[in-house]
Amino acid sequence: MDPGKVSPDRAQTCLHVFLSGLAQGCFAAENRSLELSEFLMSLLHSIQQGASRNGLNLFGLVDAKRFDSCQPREHRTDAVQPDCGTVMVLGTAGRSLWGDFQRQGRQIPQSMTDNQVDELAVAGATAVITDLWQHGVRGQLVDARRPRINFGQLAEAAGFGIVSPVSGLLLHPEFGPWVRVRAAVLLPGQPFGAIADASITDRFRPCCSCLKPCIAACPSAVHDGMGNSDRGRCADSRHHGSCEMGCYSRMACPVGAEHADQGGPMLHAHSVGRRTMQRWFGFGWWRMVPRMFRGGPRA
Question: CB of 256 within 8 A of CB of 93?
Fold first, then answer.
């Protein structure tokens, strides 16, 4: 036989060995990919459970690129973290925070200011950041009290409900207005894979058939009935002592009324704490601080 030629049998054997090796390599790669996917899903579940233990029972993921495509440039997540691909949205709903306190054998505080409650919730969000870092996933925390992105629209994108076209309050299908978005964690890329659109705004529209008692209930006439709210007027009213027991528009809303604050310090009496509103709109000693340094919502 010509030494430069390979017999058909030998060629077939070599091809079989090559294809077998290729198949084994693909199978191994597929197994590694599956193991990685299972690990990431397990990690995500663990992170969500940890958040829930800290009272953050509203948990959602948002595709940052999809969210940014509907936002003005200055409100986009990539303006805060350029490589952001995933937004983890954290919030509280109902009376879960105090329920978690009791389940962990901790005593519910007799009284807390709204600012102390805010600090407690953000401490839970900080714990989420720490948990992520321990698993090699770095994230940047954005406190809702210093909003650099539109948290109302972010909550909608995360599937938390709808921002009322009447009052501007965030309404959850189960908890109604008794919810608060506390923070967002900006993550590089998509460590948990592709993110489906979780928004329910196309099918959850409780205000369409409502008599709108929330509008008349506000003593400061903050809401115009078309989704716009004069936050400056609200801040002025609260600065001078109004609505200390909570937002009357929130209390008048029929959605999720059974989840209203009770059995502990108020968690969701207002969308924004009094001290935060004072800072945003320059009441008290904050009037000496230029607006650009007060960390308020961007126009």
Answer: no
